[in-house]
Amino acid sequence: MKEVILYIATSLDSYIATKDGSVDWLFxxxxxxxxxxxxxIGTTLIGYNTYKEILGFGKFPxxxxxxxxxxxxxxKNDNNPVHFIAKDPVEFTANLKKEPGKDIWxxxxxxxxxxxxxxxxxxxxxxxxxxxxLGDGIPLLGGMPKKSDFSLKQAKTFVNGVVEVxxxxx
Length: 170
Description:
19% of the residues lie in helices and 34% in strands. It is an alpha/beta fold.
């Protein structure tokens, strides 16, 4: 069965972006193992607001993956290799996990992260904690996350102060 992996950067105070969606505070130097991780993924799951932010960076970056964008109101196909999903994200993801193939990258954002966490569908979390306090913004887990138990798989530090922690569902 495929795993759903939340692979994401966060501030020390657990924000994944500023209130306006900006991630210009992220430390861009360093590769942090992204290329290796990316090769293990066959599918991305992205909330609509996160998708809009990604498009603001330029060309859509995940063209070689199967990409699902969750939105109840925006379902028009655009010129990117994405599928808009207006179905329940929990049911859709549970079914997707049963299909053969590579793992699933939960790109985010905060609302979809919480929905899938609360449903017990996130198998691993790989968090890159940047040494900055934003004070406000889009939280890693929006809404009301339920208590969920994870165990530490590994932790790594980088010269610039970024800490990578990987947790797996107990």
